[in-house]
Structures are given as structure tokens and as C-alpha cells.
Design brief:
heterodimer; A: 655 residues; alpha+beta; rod-shaped; B: 133 residues; alpha/beta; Rossmann fold; five-stranded parallel β-sheet; 47% helix; disordered C terminus
Chain lengths: 655, 133
């Protein structure tokens, strides 16, 4: 496990290394001081600080050996000194081993130079240091076992002093271990362990987790409190304040209390940690939720989620609220039937069920909804089933993009294109009509004048005179009728969108339009009935445009009845208070329901190829709307188009 | 009656020129036919007709050219009545250019005769103009 792993508390590891370095230095300097004391002959009472040369040398070497460990080495430590750490460790062994051997082999050389326990401690820690130097970083714990044993020797001596038990600091006939020596041994052992804390038996002390925190905060109490209590009680017994029994009972009770306090504190700490963890997790969760929520809310498309079981809304985003004009509060828990007309809701619900059944994304390129806030909108909707961990459909996610404006723009563009196309055709036709008009008018003048002249010839008493006279009159009248058609053709074929609005007699408008088709209707047996239109009913309009619309409606009507046994077309007139309505009804079979929505769209036609451009009604609709009026298809079995143009405003304008 | 008042009829279509001549002659006018503007201008100078009736669109010179040439010689006389099958010249424009009236083809012979008689009897372009307008 690398030191950078989050399981390690980095501050603890840093502190451990610093402690290790300072402890090693302390050991090194204690050796130096003792050596100096011996040299100067500053020997104090046995047991406290005896400046004897061998232990002094041992600690000097041991301190250096630990300082030379790669983890511990301070930066200022010279390179050569680092390299000989193993050597000094070995020299420690050389200092200690003879003393131990002397004890067992009873060889009285080097008398009274070092306590046997000191030698033991030095040898153990020295061996650990040699092993530390020998083994690479991140090695096993084995090298720490002798160090801990050495530390234990020092601790025992310390306890021996605290409890006044001599055998702990003076083993055998040799001298006693000094108090300072026991401390130095403990520091040396601790420095060894702290140098490689994560690989040591004490690794849990460096954990960043709760176990590490527990260990760090509890261990000092668990050690110090019983040890101090014991020392105090032992001292009391020695002074004769109470007997051994009291001491034992007190120790037992004291330890139990310490144990209980430790557990208590552990519980408190665990509770605190748990609370913090929960708070942290809750905050993180909250943050994640807020993040997701703001994503969903800020998506400019309507997002909704329905429960798969009852298809009720469980989620709606801001774009959805705005589109439907309803707040989340009003939407959540409701279903489509609460907001949309039944047939629309039926449609949505059946689609939803289909999506949930198929378990696949469903793309609805165009669907129409009726909202209270924004009227009819066209949506591009995608519906996605959301499954739970067991693969059951849990939710239905919907994403709807409002494409109304885009559709409208496309429609406007199409209409404009259609209008331009029609206008260019009309302009062409206009030019041609102008040309034909001239070509026809002069011959017509010859025909009519000749026919007129014939009528002034002959003898009225001649039996054939009357017949000749009648036919000549017919020729003349027909010539004038042709002239009228030519004139109307020239007028109607013009691009009239920039014509000025003028007040025109409605009867004249209707007659103008009828002049184009009356003859054709008559020839094909189409009966045309025209409502009587009173004189002096005038309309504020562009007359040519309105005639064009009427003619278009009449032509459509003709196409509808052309091949039927019953061929009738009726031109209706209605003068209401606010508008004038002209209608064209034919006796045909009517427009199929599925086409009713499309008939005003540009390029829509049901006529056979080559007959209709599909522009007529869309252009008519545009013209009528340009007059502030409406062109509509009346519901009913027969086709009845009603052209309605308002009068009120226009009359005011005239006035 | 306007016996022997001379009318110069300018029309490139021979049939129309013929029928106009017959109609006006029957009404008591002396008719001088011309088939083009050039010919008409020469005849107008040589014969000094009481009235000129001219088509507008003709090959080799239009009725408007003829009108301009006549008006260059004299501001008001002879009165000129223009005929057209076109919508390119309006009544007002014709009057501005110095014509007395503009007839839209086809028209009734009877209407032409009445117009001509009215112009010739008043002799005043103003009155006849107001009537024609």
C-alpha cells in the first residue's frame, strides 16, 4: 500500500517521521553527552545518570545508525554518514554482545562497564537497525520485532524505577540500567517503528479512518492512566498508608474505570464520526441532486417523467411548465386527461403504453397539443422507457421540443414561394393577355362594326330582312361579349397585390368573375344560381384580387361537379352587420375529412396531374387574409367555401 | 347635317378602314382613307380635313406621331380622334397630347358618328373634350 493511499492520514505519517528523526537525534546526543561526562569524570549516583563509556558509545552508534535510515535521514546529514548506517548498527552489536556473553559464560572481562539489560536492549535495537538498513523500503515487519523487544526492555526498566522493582533494571550481578538509558532505549525503539509506521504493527495508528482516530485518541489513556495509578498505589503501600489488598482492589477498580472511560469516549467519538460522515454524505448527495436538478431544469426542451403504472406525472422541468402554462404543483400527480381534450389524451396515453411495452425509444416527429397558455403547439417528442434494477419499466421519460415556430417559418416560406411562383405566372399571363387583347380588339372592331353596318342595310319589307337583321345583331352582341371577356382577362391577369384599395360594388365583383365562366358552365350543363345582390352594396377591397378569389372558387366548384349527373353551383351572398360574405357551394360529393386540414396548404391538390397547381386556395387564403377577412370551408356534406370580408372598419375609412 | 365635311381615316387594317369609311360616308361625311401615319400627314396637309380619326399602333409610324406632327403645325386644328385596342394610352394622356378624344376598340359606329358630329358642330375642343371625358 503506497503512502499516498487515502487510507493513511498524511499528517500522522509526517508527524511520525518527524518524531522518528528527533528521537534518533536525541539518542545520538544522549550518547554524546554521556561520553563527554565520562571523559570529564562527571559521574553521578547510580541509577540516574552514570557516565559510563560503553553504553555511551552504544547509543552514539545506535543514534547514528537510526539517523542513517533512508526514511529518517535529515537533509543536512552528510552522504558518507548515511552510507555507514549499517556499519554503525553492526558496531552496536559488537559493543553489546560481549557483555551478554560475559554474563552467561561468566567471563569477568570488561567488569561493570554496562548493565546486562542495557546490553540486551542495545543489541536488540542495533539488530533491528541492521535489518532495517538491509531490507528495502516497504518490507515485512520482521525487522521491527527486535526493535520492539529492545523498547520493551527499556520500558520494563522504567517501570522498575516507577514501581521500585529492582529486577527490572538490574538483571544479574552486573550494574543497574540507568533511568536515562531506559528512556533512550524506548526512544530508539519508537524511532525505528515510527520510521516505517505503515509497515509496522502499529500501522493502524496512521489510518485516516475512524479506527486510526480511535487508536490515536484512546491509546495514551489506556497506557498512561493504569501505569500512573499503579505507581501511585505502590508508592502508597511502600509508605504504609494501606495494605496490599487495598492496592489490588484499587488497581482493578481503576483499570475497570479507565476501560469504561475509554469505551465511553470511543462511543462518543464513533457517534461524532458517524454524524459527520452522514452529514458529509448527505451534503454530497444534495449537491449531486442540485446539480442534476439544475441540468434538467435548464434544458430548454420540455422534460417530463411519468410513473409507468398509472402514467401520472412525477417530474416536470421549467420549459415544460412554461410550455403548458402550468406550475409543477398543478402538474405533478396528474395525467394527460387532466390537461388535454379526451381524444388528444387518448392519443398520448396509447403512445405511452406502446413505448412502455416495446421498451424502446419512440420518436414522434410531430404531435399537436392544445395548451391553455400558448394555444396549439407542435412538438417533436421522444419517449424513453426507464427500467429499474430488475428490468421492469418504472418510468416514462419524455423530451419534447416545441417546433411550432420552425414549422410556421417553413410554412410562411413555402407560402411566400408559392405566392411568388403564382405571381410570376400571373405576370406572364398578364403580359400575354395584354398582347392578345390588342390582337383581338381590332378584329373585334371589324366584326362588330360590320355586323352593325349590316343592320343598316336592306329593305325592311324584304321577308328575309328581319332574319338577317337579327343574326347581324347577334354577331355584334357576341363581339362585344368577347370584348368584355378580353377586357376582364386583361384586368384579372395582372399582379394586383399593390393595387390601391377602393370601394367597389359587390354585384360588379361577382359579375366580373362570372363573366369568365358563365359560358363554360352553360356549355357543360352546369347550372349556376346566384343570390340576388342588392345594388349599392359596396366593399372596400382590391377588386381584381377579390374577383380572382371568386373565379378560383368557381373553377374549383366546376371541377368538382364536371362529371356528375347533378351539376349545380350556387353563389351565396350575406350582408351582416360587420362583414360581407360571399359563398360558393357545389353539388359535388364534398371534401374528404382527411383533406380538410390540408386544402389551404400550398401545393396541396387532389386534381389529376396537370390540372391543378395546388396553389389556388393557398393564394386565395393569403389574399383574403390580406383584406383582414377569412376564407373557410363550412362543415357539411357539400363543399361550401365562404369568403368573409369585414365592412365596419372600411366604412369608417371611407367616411 | 354635316354635309361634305372631310374626315381623314387613318387605319392600317384595311377591313376596318373600309367599314369606317362606309359608315362615315353613309352618315354624310367625305372620307379620305389612309393606311399609315406618313401617308396621312401628307393627305392632312394637302386636303385640310375637318377631323382626323387615327389608329394608334400602326407599322411605320404611330397615331401619336401623326398627332404630334399635326399639332406642330397647328395647336388645335384639325381635331384628332384616336382609336386603340391597347391599354397603353389613357384618355387623359391622349387629351394632354392634343387629341380631342380616345376611342377604345371595339366601339359602335353610331357612337363614333355622334362623337364626330358633336366635335364638328361645337368646333370647340374644350366642349367636346368635356363631353368625351
Amino acid at each position: 500500500m503506497a503512502y499516498s493511499d487515502p487510507i493513511w492520514s498524511q499528517p500522522v505519517l509526517e508527524r511520525a517521521l518527524r518524531f522518528s528523526r528527533i528521537s534518533a537525534l536525541a539518542v545520538f546526543f544522549s550518547g554524546t553527552v554521556l561520553l563527554l561526562g565520562w571523559y570529564l569524570g562527571l559521574t553521578t549516583d547510580e541509577g540516574l545518570l552514570a557516565s559510563r563509556p560503553l553504553p555511551a558509545l552504544g547509543f552514539l552508534l545506535l543514534g547514528h545508525s537510526i539517523l542513517a535510515l533512508p526514511e529518517v535521514t535529515p537533509q543536512w546529514f552528510p552522504a558518507w554518514a548515511r552510507r555507514c548506517g549499517q556499519l554503525t548498527g553492526s558496531l552496536v552489536l559488537l559493543v553489546g554482545v560481549p557483555r551478554i556473553c560475559e554474563r552467561w559464560l561468566n567471563l569477568p572481562f570488561l567488569p561493570d562497564t554496562m548493565a546486562t539489560t542495557t546490553a540486551l536492549g542495545l543489541v536488540l535495537i542495533g539488530a533491528a537497525s541492521v535489518l532495517h538498513h538491509h531490507t528495502p523500503q516497504l518490507s515485512t515487519r520482521t525487522s521491527q520485532i527486535p526493535a520492539l523487544a529492545g523498547g520493551l526492555v527499556g520500558l520494563m526498566a522504567l517501570l522498575g524505577y516507577m514501581y521500585q522493582v529492582r529486577v527490572f533494571f538490574q538483571l544479574g550481578p552486573g550494574g543497574a540500567m540507568e533511568f536515562s538509558t531506559s528512556a533512550a532505549l524506548m526512544f530508539a525503539a519508537a524511532a525505528m517503528v515510527a520510521a516505517r509506521l505503515p509497515q509496522s504493527f502499529f500501522a493502524p495508528f496512521a489510518y485516516s479512518t475512524s479506527s486510526g482516530i480511535f487508536l490515536r485518541s484512546m491509546s495514551p489513556i489506556a497506557w498512561i492512566a493504569p501505569l500512573l495509578l499503579g505507581a501511585v498505589l505502590v508508592a502508597g503501600t511502600r509508605l504504609g498508608l494501606y495494605g496490599v489488598g487495598f492496592e489490588l482492589v484499587s488497581i482493578t477498580l481503576g483499570c475497570a474505570i479507565v476501560l469504561q472511560l475509554t469505551l465511553w469516549r470511543s462511543a462518543g467519538l464513533a457517534y461524532q464520526l458517524e454524524k459527520e460522515t452522514v452529514a458529509r454524505q448527505t451534503e454530497a448527495l444534495q449537491e449531486a441532486l442540485v446539480f442534476l436538478d439544475s441540468l434538467v431544469e435548464n434544458i430548454p426542451n420540455m422534460i417530463f417523467v411519468k410513473d409507468a403504472r398509472d402514467l401520472r406525472f412525477v417530474r416536470f422541468n421549467r420549459a415544460g411548465e412554461k410550455l403548458l402554462g402550468l406550475s409543477k404543483h398543478e402538474l405533478i400527480g396528474k395525467n394527460d386527461y387532466d390537461f388535454f381534450p379526451k381524444d388528444e389524451a387518448d392519443f398520448f396515453t396509447s403512445k405511452d403504453r406502446a413505448v412502455l411495452e416495446s421498451r424502446a425509444l419512440f420518436d414522434i416527429a410531430e404531435e399537436t397539443i392544445h395548451t391553455k397558455a400558448h394555444g396549439t403547439r407542435i412538438l417533436h417528442t421522444r419517449k424513453i422507457p426507464i427500467l429499474d434494477a430488475n428490468g421492469r419499466t418504472r418510468y416514462l421519460l419524455g423530451i419534447s421540443e416545441d417546433i411550432t415556430d420552425r414549422k410556421l417559418a417553413a410554412k410562411t416560406l413555402m407560402e411566400e414561394r408559392a405566392r411568388m411562383f403564382a405571381a410570376s405566372r400571373m405576370a406572364e399571363l398578364g403580359t400575354m393577355a395584354g398582347g392578345i387583347a390588342h390582337e383581338l380588339n381590332t378584329p373585334l372592331a371589324i366584326i362588330t362594326m360590320s355586323a352593325e353596318h349590316i343592320q343598316s342595310l336592306g329593305d325592311p319589307s324584304d321577308p328575309s330582312w328581319k332574319e338577317v337583321h337579327t343574326h347581324a345583331a347577334t354577331i355584334e352582341n357576341t363581339g362585344y361579349r368577347i370584348a368584355t371577356i378580353v377586357k376582364a382577362l386583361r384586368t384579372i391577369a395582372r399582379d394586383s397585390k399593390d393595387d390601391p384599395m377602393e370601394l367597389v360594388d359587390v354585384k360588379l365583383l361577382v359579375d366580373d368573375a362570372l363573366s369568365f365562366c358563365r359560358e363554360r358552365f352553360r356549355q357543360h350543363g352546369v347550372v349556376i344560381e346566384v343570390d340576388p345582390i342588392p345594388a349599392n352594396v359596396a366593399l372596400w377591397c382590391r377588386p381584381v384580387q377579390i374577383s380572382q378569389v371568386l373565379l378560383n372558387l368557381l373553377n374549383n366548384a366546376y371541377d368538382a361537379v364536371e362529371n356528375l349527373p347533378d351539376r349545380r353551383i350556387r353563389v351565396g351572398f350575406l350582408n351582416s352587420a360587420t362583414s360581407i360574405e360571399l359563398s360558393v357551394t357545389d353539388s359535388g360529393p364534398g371534401i374528404p375529412r382527411e383533406h380538410r386540414d390540408s386544402i389551404f396548404q400550398p401545393f396541396f391538390t387532389t386534381k389529376e396531374i396537370g390540372k391543378g397547381t395546388g396553389l389556388g386556395l393557398s393564394i386565395c387564403d393569403g389574399i383574403v387574409r390580406g383584406h383582414g377577412g377569412t376564407l373557410r370551408l363550412e362543415p357539411g356534406p357539400q363543399t361550401k367555401f365562404v369568403l368573409s370580408i369585414p365592412t365596419v372598419e372600411e366604412e369608417r375609412k371611407v367616411a | 347635317m354635316t354635309a361634305h365635311k372631310t374626315i381623314l381615316v387613318v387605319e392600317d387594317e384595311s377591313e376596318l378602314r373600309e367599314i369606317l369609311s362606309v359608315g362615315l360616308s353613309q352618315a354624310g361625311f367625305k372620307v379620305i382613307p389612309a393606311s399609315g401615319a406618313q401617308e396621312a400627314l401628307a393627305l392632312a396637309i394637302s386636303t385640310t380635313p375637318a377631323l382626323v380619326l387615327s389608329d394608334i399602333r400602326m407599322p411605320g409610324g404611330s397615331g401619336l406621331d401623326l398627332l404630334a406632327a399635326l399639332r406642330a403645325r397647328h395647336a388645335t386644328s384639325p381635331p384628332v380622334v384616336l382609336m386603340t385596342g391597347y391599354a397603353d394610352v389613357t384618355q387623359a394622356e391622349a387629351l394632354t397630347r392634343g387629341a380631342t378624344s380616345l376611342l377604345q376598340k371595339p366601339f359602335k359606329m353610331q357612337a363614333l358618328i355622334e362623337l364626330v358630329e358633336s366635335i364638328l358642330s361645337t368646333g370647340s375642343p374644350e366642349k367636346s373634350r368635356s363631353r368625351a371625358a
